[in-house]
Structures are given as C-alpha cells and as structure tokens.
Amino acid sequence: MKKKFWLPFIITLTLGTLVSAALRQESTQTPPAGYPIGGTVADFKLKNVDGNVISLSNYKDKKGVIVVFTSNHCPFSKAYEERIVGLDKKYAAQGFPVLAINSNDAGDYEENSFENMKKRAQEKGYSFPYLQDETQGVAKAFGATRTPHVFILRNDGGKFTVQYIGTIDDNYQDPAGVTKRYVEDAVSNILMGKPVVVTQTKAVGCAIGWKDA
Fold first, then answer.
1. Largest Cα span, the chain
2. Contact at 8 Å (CB) between 54 and 45?
3. DSSP of 137-202
4. Which CATH class is domain 35-207?
5. Which family does it belong to (predicted)?
6. Per residue in 16-37, pLDDT tens?
7. Cα 56–87–167 angle (5° rounding)?
8. Mean pLDDT calculated for residue range 60-75
C-alpha cells in the first residue's frame, strides 16, 4: 500500500522539478530586443528538415504566417506540440500556415540536432516546415527567448508585420482547460479584417539556449 501511495507522488514531484528547472533556465547573455508589434520582419532563409531552404518570402502569396520558435527537448514544447500541429491544420488552408523554427544550441541538448529534428517531424507527422536556425540569427532578430514563442505575421502588401507575440494559450498543462486561445483569436481577427485585441502575452516555456559569443 505504501508503494502505491508514494509512486504517484514521486512522479508528480519529478515532473514538477523538471518543469521548474526549465522555467529557471536563463541565458547569461542579454535577451535580444527583437521586432515590436507592427514592426516589419526582414526576409530570412533557413534549412528545412527535408533539406530544402525556406525563406519568409516563400509565403508572399499567404495572408500571414504563424511563426513558432520551438524545440525537441523542452517539456513545454512537447506539451504544445499537438496544438501547434492543430493550428496548421486549422489555418493553413485559410492562407495562414505554421512555420516552426528551432534555434536552440544542439551542443546543450543533442535532441535539438538537425537529425533529431528530422526524426521528430517524421514521427509526429508535421504538416509544416521545421527549420534549423543554426546561427540563432533569426531568433535574435525576432526577439524570441522561449520555446514555444509565437510571432503572428500579417502579409501587408508583400511585407510581413508582427501582429502578436507571446504564448499559444493560457494552459500549457491541459488543452481541455484552456480558456484563452490567444493565437487562434489573433489569427481569426486578422482573417476577418479586424484588429488583434490582445497583441502581446508572456511566453511560457524553456529559455532558448544561446551559443557562447
């Protein structure tokens, strides 16, 4: 009986410790400033897991792009993975696809290597590009600091402007317990030609592991 009682407690405590450690993980470098709301995003080119090079300009015929900085190792990224896939399934056909980027230093976590990125995309059936930001230049340009960290871009006559920055929703632990769907609300407003009401929230996740300068 004692073993049955203690096992769930130990599992919960272990998971809590891992998540707390992820939240506390901070870079010693100064966080990048990044694009502000309304800022125009410069074009970039990164290698996709299929070996092709993808650029933001490839999406000039789209209404916008949901850029998600994510990773393979982070428990928050894993918790949101199915929801990220769901966002692409819901909005890609409406001209608002997901573009996932991994900017973490694979030297910190081997899970974030390009080979493991390819495996993850195949295993989980990603319907969107999963790009490697090896130099971390794109993450710094955006001002991404966490995984996942979302930037919603609207296509304004061929230029992409930032309309939302932050987290996906208000409950990373339980999809059924979500009450505020920040990304869905923002994209829906843009598609309806309305302004985004909540333009910025705090990204909840693991700190991006920056390479030594």
1. 66
2. yes
3. HHHHHHT--EESEEEEEEEETTEEEEEEEE-S-S-SS-GGG----HHHHHHHHHHTT---S--B--
4. alpha beta
5. Belongs to the glutathione peroxidase family.
6. 444 444 444 444 455 568 999 9
7. 85
8. 98
